[in-house]
Design brief:
Blueprint lengths: L1 H16 L2 E6 L4 H8 L7 E4 L4 H11 L5 E4 L18 E2 L3 E2 L2 H9 L5 E3 L8 H11 L7 E8 L5 H11 L6 E6 L8 H11 L5 E6 L2 H7 L4 E5 L26 E4 L4 E4 H4 L28 H24 L5 H23 L8 H9 L2
Parallel strand pairs: 1-2, 1-10, 2-3, 3-6, 6-7, 7-8, 8-9, 9-10
Antiparallel strand pairs: 4-5, 11-12
Helix pairs in contact: 2-10, 5-6, 6-7, 7-8
């Protein structure tokens, strides 16, 4: 009987995430993103914040069933999982530590449609096995197992072991691929994502960028694209995210039209000094010359909202494409982007403009 209840709960949660491209947002940015997300039935939000209960109650109180809302307290950012203690279970004064069931009940009591388990960062297969085993004891709906793993686990001998463990999960899995820079620039990691999402596990790619489209096209449930740059790339542990520039580039990060690449304004502004600038032509968006955005709070906000408005239509096209045609749609889209780079180099006469490493990797892997 317990197994039947657990299976029914899992299927309910799976149905919530199927064919979804959500927005991963901080509690502070929820109000900025919600208005856009509401217009797209395939989307929703995941609030990634240690203290997200109050915001969740407020958002669900206003929008109710019109908005899919998930919660991620991001325990993996501050806690390392071990086989003996795979979850971060907080203590209540005078009552000791909560059980995992109690923790998840507290997570869901404020109206969230689903919540990620408080998994610590996973470093090996033994710990991953412990995460899935512990999560499998839960029979309530709305549970999604957070699986934050280093990029290397999607490659080599660990990949097969990881797939076997994830296929044992009774709940959908929120896969979070961690590491410095762009993990999917490495072809072995990108190929590993395809293998994992094509497996029997119900995989949802969390805290990522356009790699979410790959997950969806190759058999995954969907994923969550970060509203902020810090939620499109996850570096866990004590070491901060590295930057290739010193001092770090603080200019706004913008999803450039046509080439669909997230670039710092300081990187692409020189490209357009002698040619027509990149004017935002998205309906209802800023209408700004994107090369003139500056390192101000207001312009960072403009860039974040522009980025969301730019990729939501792509998500709509992919999720409404029949499952059998999604790989073909995505590959054709990437070929269109490649052609846009050729045209951009021709217009600007700057031959060094190149595709992002991960864009090139996905294109090279083909269908």
């Amino acid at each position: 009987m317990a197994a039947t209840v657990a299976r029914a709960s899992s299927l309910l949660t799976r149905s919530l995430l199927q064919d979804r491209v959500l927005v991963a947002t901080s509690a502070a940015s929820v109000s900025d993103a919600v208005g856009e997300v509401l217009c797209h039935g395939f989307s929703g939000i995941v609030i990634v914040d240690e203290q997200c209960a109050r915001v969740t109650r407020t958002v669900k109180g206003v929008y109710g069933s019109r908005l899919l809302v998930g919660k991620d307290t991001a325990a993996y950012m501050r806690y390392t999982a071990m086989p003996s203690e795979s979850m971060y279970l907080p203590s209540i004064l005078g009552a000791g530590s909560l059980s995992l069931a109690q923790c998840m009940q507290y997570q869901l009591v404020d109206g969230a449609d689903f919540a990620l388990t408080p998994t610590g960062r996973v470093r090996d297969l033994a710990t991953l096995d412990a995460v899935v085993t512990e999560a499998n004891t839960l029979a309530m709906p709305g549970v999604v197992v957070a699986v934050p793993v280093p990029a290397r686990m999607l490659t080599g001998a660990e990949r097969a072991g990881m797939v076997a463990i994830l296929e044992r999960s009774r709940h959908p899995v929120a896969l979070i691929v961690t590491g410095q820079f762009d993990p999917f620039a490495a072809q072995a990691v990108a190929d590993g994502l395809r293998v994992v999402t094509a497996s029997a596990a119900d995989v949802f790619l969390h805290r990522s960028d356009f790699a979410v489209f790959e997950a969806l096209a190759h058999g995954g449930l969907g994923g969550a694209i970060g509203y902020l740059a810090s939620l499109r790339h996850t570096v866990t542990g004590r070491r901060p995210a590295k930057t290739r520039k010193e001092p770090p580039d603080r200019s706004p990060i913008v999803l450039l039209p046509e080439i669909d690449s997230f670039r710092h304004q300081a990187v692409y502004e020189p490209w357009f000094r002698n040619v027509r600038p990149p004017i935002c032509a998205l309906p209802g968006c800023c209408g700004r010359d994107l090369s003139t955005l500056t390192n101000t709070r207001a312009d960072h906000a403009v860039a974040n909202l522009h980025n969301l408005r730019a990729w939501l239509p792509l998500g709509a096209q992919l999720t409404t494409t029949p499952v059998a045609g999604r790989r073909g749609w995505l590959h054709a889209y990437r070929q269109t982007v490649e052609a846009a780079y050729v045209d951009l180099r021709r217009r600007t006469r700057i031959r060094t403009i190149s595709m992002d490493d991960s864009q090139r990797t996905w294109l090279t892997l083909g269908l």
